[in-house]
Write a structure and sequence with these properties.
Length: 130
């Protein structure tokens, strides 16, 4: 499993918004500047986060993005799953239920399921803001 740039940047965006959480919308250009990430690339990331109801967005003057919930109500795990789709270490675990025709006889399936559980548990224990 490798976390993509999109996933890493999504976590940075969410932390930035948590740190600047004053109830107002934060312009994307401000986030881009502070995080040194291109505004164009951030547009794609905040679009995914908004569609997954992690962010609220407002267009126009005074617009931008803000968290949909309190910072402490988010985990890194949910942010990564929103952007990565899955944290599964192998392809056969990406969809539930596992549709692999060899699942019932696979000697390594339990090992991969255990790793997936560890990864999800680890990231789900990290709050966006402690």
């Amino acid at each position: 499993m490798k976390i993509s740039t999109k996933g890493r940047y999504a976590v940075r965006v969410m932390i930035d918004l948590a740190e600047h959480n004053n109830g107002e919308y934060v312009p994307l250009i401000d986030i881009a500047s502070r995080q040194e990430i291109s505004k164009k690339y951030l547009e794609a990331i905040v679009s995914v986060l908004s569609k997954n109801e992690l962010l609220l967005s407002l267009r126009g003057k005074g617009g931008g993005y803000k968290l949909a919930r309190k910072p402490e109500d988010y985990t890194v795990g949910e942010i990564l799953r929103a952007t990565e789709g899955s944290l599964a270490p192998v392809a056969c675990l990406e969809k539930k239920p596992n549709r692999c025709s060899r699942a019932d006889q696979c000697k390594t399936l339990k090992m991969w399921e255990g790793l997936e559980d560890l990864v999800n548990h680890y990231f789900d224990q990290i709050p966006l803001k402690a």
